């Protein structure tokens, strides 16, 4: 986004109205996104979903699993192993309750949108397979919110493994958008024995792709996804990604006027 993205028509006018104080931005909702990684023959691969064309936000875009924090994600009853919510709050500059919700949303949304579950019977174990009919019933119940994440873990005797997540980035949707999210990005390795599947819902296609190939032009990518893939393309293995030093800096693309044209700059 060195030269920015043009904001024609309604978006350009909306940007002008917000900058002039004539219009107030929509509040951003807390959300979490997880980049699932696996090693391939030519380096790391990432799991991407294509959002249905009918979606109100980012229609047709290839994205990582993720979504908004459910208020129940902040429930202290969620069984937990790994770095505490307080520690995650320090990483993401958030209070402990918000941090708990972000990590729970990251694990819950990843399971809902890929079938991958970052949880185990204890702090040293991970669920090996989540493809049975009973798992599918729970996944659907989580999606329709008839089952809380804490209850899902509790009935299966599982603990959330926050140590399987690595913090990666923090993006806030630009103020010009009608729907806005305050999103923390995580990366995680596909657990041994688990496999992703086409789970439908908000997506009409899923792929495993090398970051460099996803950047090759055939995929519609939102700026945060494009930036994340660009960063990941520099690593030769999943191990290198997970060992990388990261400083989490909040990024919110902003609208600016250049030579009479409104453009979105990161």
From TrEMBL:
Nudix hydrolase domain residues: 27-235
CDD domains named in the record: NUDIX_AcylCoAdiphos_Nudt19
Swiss-Prot/TrEMBL cofactor(s): Mn(2+); Mg(2+)
Keywords associated with the record: Hydrolase, Magnesium, Manganese, Metal-binding
Cited Gene3D superfamilies: Nucleoside Triphosphate Pyrophosphohydrolase (3.90.79.10)
Protein name: Nudix hydrolase domain-containing protein
